[in-house]
Amino acid sequence: MQLETYISDLLYRYECVTIPEFGSFITHRVSASINETTHTFYPPKKAVSFNEQIQHTDGLLAHYIADLEKIPFEVAAKKIAKRVSTLKLFLLQGKTVTFNNIGELRYNSEGKILFEPTYKLNYLTDAFGLSPFEAPAIIREMHKKKVEQLEQVIPLNITPEKRKSRPYFKYAAVAVIAMTIGGFSASNYYTNKIETYNELAQEEATKQLDTKIQQATFSLNPLPAITLNVTKQSGNYHIIAGAFRVEENCNKTITQLRKAGFNARHIGKNKYGLYQVAYGSYESGKEALKAIREIRKTHNKNAWLLVKKLD
Question: Does residue 51 carry a pLDDT above 90?
């Protein structure tokens, strides 16, 4: 009789399987884990242990054998008792008893049974089909260096987006229209218009950044100069052309924009440490909306509006 086969079957469904007058195999759930040294992910499982103190039969094993072999319960119980006598004899002789797919049993120097489980089977049915796997470590600093190298060649137009995998790319539009700007008042109509434009810019940037990260989304190819009434370089409405990690790229962009007819300027760093370049700054929301419509139409469709009081 292959006793270990029957025990193995029952371990999938029960937490305790008792061999009368011998001991019990007990399972408990173990959560999924990660080996940080080998970067190996292990699924949840049932860990198996053996307790020789629990020997009182509950009839589970005998009933299962009787049902499978189509024999009376008493006959199944006698078969188990006979196998137990053989197991104890092997252990007294100093031999190791092996239960396939469960583990090995042997006596220690004090005459107690030692159990060494095997890990060939996962008795947790919830984890069926799952197996350990290795994944290489993510070295984020390497990605950062690659981006900086890319920006040396092609300036990146970092617009507001929601990017989870690379936090140093995050650049959100500051659109807090509700705050009070000292000495400045604007009508609710223009405030709502500006907020709408900021939201549209953020949505558009989120869709485009993933597909355009390997190429410049802000291109300063020779284009016909456009004439805008942007003589003022003060105000809290700023049309943003791009943001750059390297200050040299920021300065180059300002020079190119000025050659194209814009009153471009550097408006400082944002909270992510990126240098921001503006096409221009405006005193009123009406002027800013008129200018950004023209810029998006003729020069850079990714331009967006930043509402902020500069220091």
Answer: yes
One-letter identity of residue 154 = I
Contact 264, 253 (CB under 8 A): yes
pLDDT per position as a tens digit, 233-279: 678 888 999 888 888 899 999 999 999 889 899 888 888 788 899 99
How far is the C-alpha of 68 from the C-alpha of 277, rounded, in Å? 79
| pLDDT average, residue stretch 120-137 | 80
The first and second tokens of residue 214, run together, are 């390997």
Indicate the SS3 state at residue 186: coil
Sheet with strand 103-107: strands edge to edge: 97-99, 103-107, 113-117
Q: How many CA atoms lie within 13 A of 185 on its CB side?
A: 1
Please give the Cα distance from 102 to 87 (Å, whole number).
Answer: 15
DSSP helix/strand/coil, 286: helix
Q: Contact 279/264 with Cβ under 8 angstroms? A: yes
The DSSP symbol for 27 reads E
278 forms beta bridges with 240, 265
pLDDT of 171-193, one tens digit each? Answer: 444 443 444 444 444 445 555 55
Q: How far is CA 111 from CA 80, 94, 105, 271, 295, in A?
A: 22, 10, 12, 69, 88
Q: Which of 184, 176, 192, 197 is nearest to 239 (CA)?
A: 197
Longest dimension (CA), the chain: 103
- Residue 213 to residues 111, 133, 145, 160, 307, Cα–Cα distance (Å): 68, 31, 14, 14, 26
> SS in 3 state form for 213-224?
CCCCCCCCCCCC
> To which H or E segment does residue 198 belong?
helix 188-212
pLDDT score at 170: 45
140: pLDDT confidence band, cut at 50, 70 and 90?
Answer: low
- End-to-end alpha carbon distance in the chain: 86
